[in-house]
Each structure stands twice: as structure tokens, then as C-alpha cells.
Amino acid sequence: MALPKVNHIYTGDCLEIMAQWDDNCFDHCITDPPYNMSKPKGLRWAFSSHVTMQEKWDRFAQSEYIEFCRQWISEVCRLVKPNGNIFLFGSYHNIYILGYIVQSLDLRIINSIVWFKPNAQPNITCRMFTESTEHIIWACNNTKRKAKNWTFHYDVSRALNGGKQMRNMWEIPLTPPSEKVHGKHPTQKAEAVLERIIRICTNPGDLILDCFGGAGTTGVVAKRFGRRWVMIEKSPKYVAISRKRLADVQVVEEVPEPHSPQEAAQA
User: 43-79 pLDDT, tens per residue?
Assistant: First the structure.
């Protein structure tokens, strides 16, 4: 067993790579796994060349997908320190599977966060409501009975929300083109979403794991705000995009927001 190389992108299978590392070597995990929503030929617009998800890495048989998720979530729990934060992204395609596995492992679920995208793409089929949200499970890496002292910076959450308590429904637009100048990933998350999670629920200097690194947004935001990071990504194409994005990051020095315990109690 060994410790992971800090501020490094590992290229390869996440299960194989994570199995090489020591227990309790990360402070937190923030990751956006495959949603198992892709179709072999995708879905096309009637008058457009746009095609929805058809990525091979995002296609599993249902039983295979459930077992895969159970394996990587179990590895994440082994690698993250007790009471560290675990954030798992999903959509209606997979969030119930992830939630079931998290609950079967007896983890303490702190919040379910809804990311509402006001500029989401219109519905292709016109046979259902337009899908405009993604979901984030926030769990503490301990049992419901033992979980305690998870990281949550209430003062930062208020500062990022105009001085008001931040709710668990976040209205943030789709990932802007400015965050895709080095290349595109089909499920790339907006940096604004990761900024809230990282600034509110981790500490400067903490080590964050992202076992499905994609285009590198977790590492980009972690680097910007003085956190350490490790990412795993199977595709060399997306690893290359991540490295270019990381090279452009300008580090921001955070200034703690003044907020007394009395104010917090009255909020």
C-alpha cells in the first residue's frame, strides 16, 4: 500500500488505482460518477446535429452498474478519513442507486442538494417535464450513530449567499463556454457549483479525492482556493484537458468572513 501523489491526475481505472492506497489518506471526496444514461446511438434533435449522451464509459447493464457503484463507493469510504465529507453527483438516472448504496453502508446523509439550471436544454421528446436539475448527496463518512464534527463553514455559506442562510436548492446556470476553452466534456460541472462545496465544506490545505475526474473541475477549483487534490480519470483525452485547465488556475487567498457564534445562533 502507498500514499497517493498529491496534486496529481492518475490515468486509469479508479478501482485499480484506489486499491493501491492506504486507508484514511483523504480528508474528503467530491466526485461525479457515470450516470448510466447513455444510449448506443444517443437521441437526436429533429433539426440539429446535437446528440445526447452516447459515451461508452457511461453505459452499463443495470446489475453491473449497481455492483460497480457499490465497489467504488466502498473504496471511497475506506480512503476518506472518519467524518470526512463525501459529495456524490447524480441525476434521476442514478441518484436513487447511489443513495441506496450510501444508506446500505449506514453513512450519515447530511443533505441532498438540488442544482437547478435555469438555462437547461429544452426537452427533446416533448413527452415529459423538461429536466432542469441534478442532485448531490452530501454524506459524512461515518455511521449515523457515530458521525460528528463534519466540516461546514456556516459563515462562508452566508457570505456566498448575500448574508443569508444558504438553502439546499442552488440556482446556477449550465457550465459556461469560458470553462470549456481547452476542450469539452459531456457532463462537465460548472465551477460555481464546486466552489460552493469546496469553500463551505472543506478547509484550506485539505486533500480532496475525485475518482472520476472528467475535465478536472474539482482539481481546478481546489487549486484556486488552496486545497490539495488527487484526481483519477480513465480517458487520456480528458486528462489532457484537465492539465491545460489546471495550468491556467490563479490561486485566490481566502479571507475569513467575520461571524460570531451569537449571530449564527440568531440566523
Answer: 444 444 444 545 665 566 778 999 999 999 999 999 9
At 185, which amino acid appears?
H
Cell 446556470 locates to 173
The DSSP secondary-structure symbol of 230 reads E
Look at the chain and count its residues. Answer: 267
For the chain, the distance separating the N- and C-terminal CA atoms, rounded to the nearest angstrom, is 46
Thinking of the domain 8-266, which architecture would CATH place it in? 3-Layer(aba) Sandwich (3.40)
Q: What is the DSSP letter of 247?
A: H
Strand spans (E) along the chain:
8-11, 28-31, 85-90, 107-116, 133-143, 169-171, 207-210, 228-233
Domain ranges for the chain: 8-266
Q: How far is CA 4 from the centre of its chain?
A: 19
Helices (H), the chain: 14-18, 62-79, 95-104, 154-159, 191-201, 217-224, 236-247, 261-266
User: Is there a contact between 72 and 133 (Cβ–Cβ < 8 Å)?
Assistant: no
- Round to whole Å and give the CA distance between 208 and 133: 25
DSSP state of 163: T
Whether 26 and 218 have beta carbons less than 8 Å apart is answered as no
What distance in Å separates the CA atoms of residue 197 and residue 249, rounded to the nearest whole number?
Answer: 18
Query: Which cell numbers in the block locate residue 121?
Result: 436544454
Query: What are 164-219's pLDDT values in tens digits?
Result: 999 999 999 999 999 999 998 888 999 999 999 999 999 999 999 999 999 999 99
Determine if the pTM surpasses 0.85.
yes
Backbone angles phi, psi at 36, to 5 degrees: 60, 45
* Other CB atoms within 10 Å distance of the CB of residue 172: 17
For 134, 159, 178, 198, the CA distances from 31, given in Å and listed in that order, are 13, 25, 22, 12
- Cell triple for 180: 470549456
